[in-house]
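Hi, here's the filled form for the chain we discussed.

Project: internal
Contact: R.S.
Residues: 281
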Amino acid sequence: MQVLSTTEELRHYIANLKAENPNKTIGLVPTMGALHNGHLSLIQQSKEQCDYTIVSIFVNPTQFAPNEDFDKYPRKKEADLNICQKTDVDIVFMPEIAQMYPLDSTLQTTFNAPKNMANVLEGKTRPGHFDGVLQIVLKLFNLTQPTKAFFGQKDAQQLLIIQKMVEDLFLPITIVSCPIVRTQEGLALSSRNVYLSENGKKDALKISSALNAITKAIMQGIQDSKALKKIAFEVLENIEVEYLVIVNRELEEIKTIKKDSTLVLIVARIEGVRLLDNLWF
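And the returned structure, exactly as it came back:
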């Protein structure tokens, strides 16, 4: 396993790799570290579909607002490297901030995520978040030149916006959408779950229970969004829900469930920890 920390090292390594193995495929798994089984599922997908797998580990400052938890975000360098070693990752890219952002902020090229998709839901409460996401993702795409890049469905809005960027900029990359990985009890895995107490984790299970209730209702023939949300809120009693929406792939709220184009998105706070979960149809 190669562990690289500078953009120069990475670009040199990728150039040699492609020169020596022009027909081999490269899979990229972008992460912010604190790896868990959700990340492992992305790595496994990459290893199954590509000849080489690159895992990037970088807590990206441009996607955090000033009042968010950038400094507190969990960083577990040695544990992350051990996980990558055990899963036979080929390359780990672990740069410092100065490597990814060598220019002063006034000289950086910035991005505007699609307005209709970026200024709602997560973007409504985190202005500029998706601009920062696209900024770092495009940098990683340019550095690693992957055949495929693997993203989890838990960050649904992020995934959809990245897909739009790839489509809009004609990038020769396939974005692979990977299912949410959950604990045995049903809690969606997240690096922020470490902030929850045992009681908090039990309360958080109401989030996935609400999604299950929506699924059962749809299977029983209920397609009205208002009725489905009412069912979910009954399960989420006493939980601080930031938003619960039923939307299409462009993140526009819809009144009726549509086959193969509907998402249910939930954000709730448990013990002050902001948790995301969703359901894809």
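Let me know if anything looks off before we file it.
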